[in-house]
Amino acid sequence: MSTFTISSSIAGEVPVHLTSDLTKAQLLSFPAFKNWISTLEHSLSLQEQNENHTFHASPYKLRKIDIQSVDFFGSGKLGFVKLKAEVSNDKGEKLPGSVFLRGGSVGMMLILQPDDVSPESEEDKHVILAVQPRIPAGSLSLAELPAGMIDDSGEFSGAAAKEIKEETGLDIPKDQLIELTKLALPETQDLTGEKLQQAVYPSPGGSDEFVPIFLHQKRVKRETLKEWQGKLTGLRDEGEKITLKLVPLDQVWKEGGRDAKVLASWALYHGLRREGAMAMPSLPATLVNNTPYQSKGL
Length: 298
Prior knowledge:
Layout: E1 3-8, E2 12-17, H1 24-28, H2 31-49, E3 61-72, E4 78-88, E5 94-95, E6 98-101, E7 106-114, E8 126-134, E9 139-144, E10 147-150, E11 156-157, H3 159-168, E12 178-179, H4 180-184, H5 188-191, E13 213-220, H6 222-231, E14 243-248, H7 252-255, H8 260-274, E15 287-288, E16 291-292
Parallel strand pairs: 2-3, 7-13
Antiparallel strand pairs: 1-2, 3-4, 4-5, 4-6, 7-8, 7-10, 8-9, 8-14, 10-11, 12-13, 15-16
């Protein structure tokens, strides 16, 4: 085990105690740690800057960080860090500081609708859920919103994205995405001065994980949607780890309600539609019985 210090504008030099399998360079280059420490330090600095801050009279300071364990991915890349941060004021009062660092990911709300109904209508909309083992939840078949990342090329990627591509042939390009969390959530800097992500924090009492929620709406032929309804049932072949399930939009809050991403996406989608804050995607006219579809409105 080794120890080094990081500079804090509030508390001066803060000791960081490492585990034997983690180096200073690895920790300081870990994106989740860099984001967490900078966000926390900024929030702590606001206590003294703002005389109306709740903790202005007796501000809290970061005193030390104990790294308790780390997990590396198969490539040797640092994946997860469990640490204990001591945050206290001069009265000896402490804030809970057990943190599981894993960083951000994205949730993808993929809505499919037959192309023979008005694009302005909510009729026959369905959402794709992923069904897969989630050992931390004690489950081998948890239904959830597909999660992954937006890669360097702007595409939605990850295991769920790969499964969606294999089963439906659908690609999800960045220029066809609507970032629901960014539309709905104001900048925290405008409200509190803090610099939180414009994202959902599923478990802020124990983890730094943040999840921006994206929406992709796709109109497909009704025959194709019916085919997928019969195919994407959530039932897995023997040994299959991940599969897809097509769920009516008005039922997804129940079918996937154990997943915070599902509930967040459902609430954001309906809230933004209700306030008229979400523009409809630009869609070409669709041929129905060899004539251009004419919108009948709501």
